[in-house]
Design goal:
321 residues; 82% helix; 13 helices; mainly alpha; A middle domain of Talin 1
Length: 321
């Protein structure tokens, strides 16, 4: 029970920490007059991916590379199948052409890059530096879109919805620092609990990373997308998921590997990497056909995610993993 309590406590702290850091950072950025686009893409993008980064870094420093990679791969799969599935089940998600051209292509490219890195066997520091440069290029392209006036509100409407973001500088600093402290504590607790559960049931760290840890670190995205869907901001929900997947690969894995090089087990090429790449391509197909993700398509995504998790946790699969 102790391991479950640690994992659950880690989930809660990661969720609270991500929300606190996000609101504190948005409040500070607004206070200093930073543009809404920069706040939306950089602050919100990194803020919702902060749990992934802290968990990835902590696992990598402990030498648990399977947890690090499993978290990234599993989070990207959950973002597409579970989170978009939930959003579209609430209300069909409209796909603007600008979202498809920019974030959709970037997400598919990042997924393909991760598969290539798996075939390579890992992420060395020089590769990590290149990934961060690619991310910088993506952000520069977002800024260029804004200057042209054809930017889609992928994150900007989320910023406008954050009316509770602290306006006072001191309160923004305190809120952001509290968020960081909660994220650090939550990542430690989640990894301790997840590792204990894996050892208890003989489940590999890769499977735990792709399922339990990935789901926990995706909670901020799930909360953001759920609220966006309820507020008829389905395009924002979709853009958040696509952008988060780009940040997870290029930013979170890139930054982690720059600090501590990460090796990728060949086992991820058996199923997980191809599922991630396949569902990324499938989501783009859904976005192109009818320019929306319908409730019927959400059912396909949710059922597919359930089958994927069942497959991973099947005793025969676990034994192989």
């Amino acid at each position: 029970m102790e391991h479950y309590a640690l994992a659950l406590g880690g989930f809660v702290l990661l969720f609270l920490g991500g929300e606190s850091l996000l609101r504190g950072a948005v409040g500070l950025a607004q206070r200093f007059g930073v543009s809404t686009l920069f706040i939306g893409v950089v602050v919100v993008g990194f803020g919702t991916s902060a749990p992934e980064f802290l968990v990835c870094l902590e696992a990598a420093l402990r030498g648990q590379d399977d947890l690090t990679v499993g978290n990234i791969v599993g989070s990207n799969i959950a973002n597409v199948m579970l989170i978009v599935g939930v959003a579209a089940a609430i209300r069909p998600v409209i796909s603007r052409p600008a979202i498809l051209r920019r974030d959709g292509v970037a997400m598919l490219g990042a997924s393909a890059l991760l598969v290539g890195l798996a075939l390579h066997g890992g992420v060395e520091r020089w590769i990590a530096a290149g990934m961060l440069l690619l991310l910088a290029g993506f952000l520069a392209y977002c800024a260029q879109c804004e200057r042209r006036g054809d930017d889609c509100p992928t994150y900007t409407e989320e910023v406008e919805d954050m009316t509770a973001a602290p306006r006072a500088i001191w309160l923004g600093v305190v809120t952001a620092l509290l968020g960081i402290a909660l994220l650090v504590s939550g990542s430690n607790m989640l990894i301790e609990g997840a590792t204990g559960i894996a050892q208890t049931y003989g489940v590999s760290e890769a499977v735990i990373g792709v399922t339990l840890v990935a789901l926990g670190t995706s909670l901020p995205e799930l909360a953001t997308v759920f609220v966006a869907a309820l507020r008829h901001h389905g395009d924002v929900a979709l853009g958040n998921v696509l952008g988060s997947n780009v940040f997870n690969v290029l930013g979170m894995l890139g930054l982690t590997s720059l600090i501590e090089p990460v090796s990728i087990s060949p086992a991820f090429l058996d199923v997980d990497m191809w599922v991630m790449l396949g569902v990324s391509a499938l989501l783009l197909v859904f976005m192109i056909t009818g320019q929306r993700v319908t409730r019927g398509e959400s059912g396909v995504l949710l059922a597919g995610y359930a089958l994927y998790v069942i497959f991973l946790l099947n005793p025969a699969t676990v034994a192989v993993g």
